[in-house]
Structure formats: C-alpha cells, structure tokens
Amino acid sequence: MNPLPLLFVVLLLYGPLVAYSFTFHSHVGFALVRKILLAALPTFEPHTYQLDGVCKVLDKIDLVAVTRTGSGKTGFLFLTILVMIAIARDPSLCPGVKFPKDPAIVVVCPTNSIEQQMEQNMAKLGIHALMINSDTVTAARIRGEDLWKKAREGISMLILGPEQLISKGFQDLLKCEAFYDRVCALGVDEIHLLAMWGLGFRKAFTQIGFMRARFRAGIPIIGLTATLLADPTIADAIFDFLSVNRGEFYLLRRSNARHDIQILFRTLYSGIDGLYFPELAWVLRNSDKTLIFGATISLVFRIKIYLDSQCAENVDRDLRIRAYHSINWPEENLETIELFKSNPGCQIIVCTNGLAQGNDISAVKTVIQVGEPESAEMFVQKPGRARPNAENPRAIFYISALRVAKAIKIVSQSDAENAADTKKDGAVAMDRPVAEIISGRCKPFIQDKLYGNPISDIPCTCRTCVALPPASRPISGRCSDCLPEVSTEVYVP
C-alpha cells in the first residue's frame, strides 16, 4: 500500500496545528523575545544567557539558573513577566501563544531586604509589584488596607516571604479565581537556602514544593542562586524542595567565580567574644565603602562599639558606621542601605547575614568577614556583595590560628572522627567544605572544585558584555595564598 496518500491526509488535517506550534527556545523565539524586551526596556539589552532561561520558562519548562553574584539573576523574573504582559496585551506579537489578560508571577524571597529591593527595582521598570511579609501586613492593617485583596488584580509580581505561603491570607488568595488564573510562574530566589535554612530554623522553606502543587497545572518554576554545590546529595535535596526532578527541568549553570574580586585571608588575633578588634582599625583610615559581617547580632554590636571608639571626635559616628540586623526596625535597615548608597559620609555597615543574600548595593568595594564563613555558600555570597564597577574590589576573611588548625584537622579526618571531636571538645562545628576552603591553597581553585565551575562560560554576546566583558580567569592566582600579602593594613600584635 502506498503510504503517500495517507501522509497527505495527515498533513491536511494536522498541518494547521503544526503551523501554530511555536517554541520560544528557538532562533525565531529568541529574536521575538529580544524584540519585545528592547521595546519595553529601550536602554537595557538582556544577556544571552538570560534570554536562554527566559525562553525555556515561556515554553513552560522549569528553570534552575546558577550564575555568579551580580550577573542579573533577578532578570530571569522581570524579563519573563515583561514578555508575558506584552503578548497578553498584543496577541498578534505571537499568534497561537496565549497568556492570561493580567499575568502575574509569584516570587518567594528569603529576607525582607531582598523583598524590599526587588519591589523597588520592579517599580523602576514599570512593573506593578507588591511585597507581602509580616511587617507589611501589620503596617497595612494599621492603615486599614488588606494587601491580600490588593494582590488579586493589577499586581504583576507578588513578592512573598516563605512564611506567607502557609498563611491564611495566601490560602484565601489562591481561592480567588481571578488571581488563581493569572499566575503564570513561581519564582524562588536564593534556592540554596532551602537546604541550609529549611532543615533548620525556617521550616516554611520546605513548603514551597507543596504549594506549587496548588497552582494551575503546568506552571513553571524559576529557581535562582549563585551557590549550588556540585555535591549531588545537596543539590538533589534542593530540587526535592522545589518539586523538580533531574532531567525534567532546564539547568542553566555558569561559573559562580568572581575573578574581579581579590580574596584575602588574615589572622584574627582578637578573641571573637571580646570587645577589641584592632585588626579592623585600618578601615577607618580609608574611605572605601565597606561591609563588615559578623555571625551574630552580639558580634555586630561589639564591632560597631569598637569602631565608634576609634573615630575622631568630630566625626558623626552614627552616620559613618551603621549597624544592620534583625533587631532594628525594617525602616531603619532600609535607611541604612539608602544612606550607604547615596551619602559619601556613610562608609561602613556592620551587619549580620541578612545583607549577605541577594542585595545589590552598587557602592561596595570591600567586604570583611570576622570569623570563618558559616558555610561554603557564605564564602561565595559575602564577597559577591562587592560590585564589579568598584576599583579593585576585595573580600577579607579574619580567622584565628586555632580555627585554621581546626580546619586542617577536619580535612585530614573522617566525618565520624570529626563528629566525635566536636562532641568531646564542645567547639563550634565546622562544615567540611568550609574546612577545605580555609586549609586549601588558592581559595578560588577550591571554590571551582566545590561548585563544579566550568573552566570558561559560553561568552555573552549582548552589547554590554561585548563592550565591557566580565573579568576572565587570571593566569596566576591573586588570593593571599598565591600572592602573600604585604600591606600596612595587616595587623601585627
């Protein structure tokens, strides 16, 4: 039997369907999305890798994007919603593809500061965003306003803390058909915290995958981070929290190395529980915009008090040195960030880890950590607060000789032996990846190993990266292991 007539009938019947089957992740799709975004943001050209991820999401494919700090991870969110809004308003841009009339993305953020910054950035782009957390809900209630009702219509990006996902307000919002039909994607920022915090003190992180099941079928997820460890056990735990499976989502992994940042390790001679930190006195002798991280609010207070005591009498200490932590009112923390950005007299922020995740403060040149990083993720995230537009950005870690010796011992022993030592001597535990970083030669090399960084990324062809390409991997190391530091800043007791 000649199959051609049958094939002709199939093409005749199903040809129109094939003609309207459109894929965003294609040459034609890339060109269309780029055209839409250039029309919406004339002064902004998306990175090639951003287009890559956005087109996958528009095809309703889950995305996990791993890119370095400062590379524009938030762009995966706002570029996606801008394309959806454009096509919803003008279906002729892409016949056969439909989005709700008033599309929206729900975004889960780990900290209030990230939520505040994201809401502000969306407003600058003309995107109607709404931040809902315990603070904003309380403030709105005092004003007589219901933020959950406000979110039902006209809000293109709903920014939530993880605790809000299990709140009655959000449950009622999902019951609202007008809102339910508008949601086109679920974004989760800083997904590495799902394992770090979700298994510890913020159980709400573990609910993200469950809440996803309550949205319409086919809603893609957008997971963003700069620090997804290569260890498959840790990565799979994060994927489980997101409710995505290996092989069923698009993993966009680029190197998280910041070759523009110099990594320096210096000896901390002062007791971390003490009141004096002469190792930091040099910070007051220059004008670099500086973040100083302490692991606890107590340590932040003590560093701030010490630096205040070292200031000249004619200096406004409360302006020059600010403290950022969860005990402050949210408005005070927000004021600190704004002063740091805009006022030359505000030079130093002493802060807890709340400023380590996702905050984009363009003025930062120097980042200091007093004590070892709490995790390998913090080793990457905190230096990442230094901006590439600063001259010679750097990150300095002050670690005591005792903790360095502890790191060397941990690397030389098994996990069982280390657990027994910690139980016996009662010392603060140290993760093996952190121990590898502290004890290893050439910190950037250890970072590449822990995160499985590619030797080189596929070059971005956008105008910005062509004109000002990101810093490339140096031929020889610039860290204090590879190039011993000789500086007047180094404290010798």
From TrEMBL:
Coiled-coil regions, chain positions: none
GO CC annotation: chromosome; cytoplasm; nucleus
GO biological process: double-strand break repair via homologous recombination
Enzyme category, top tier: isomerase
Domain called Helicase ATP-binding: residue spans: 54-246
Signal keyword on record: yes
Helicase C-terminal domain: residues covered: 276-427
Record-given protein name: DNA 3'-5' helicase
Source organism of the structure: Mycena metata
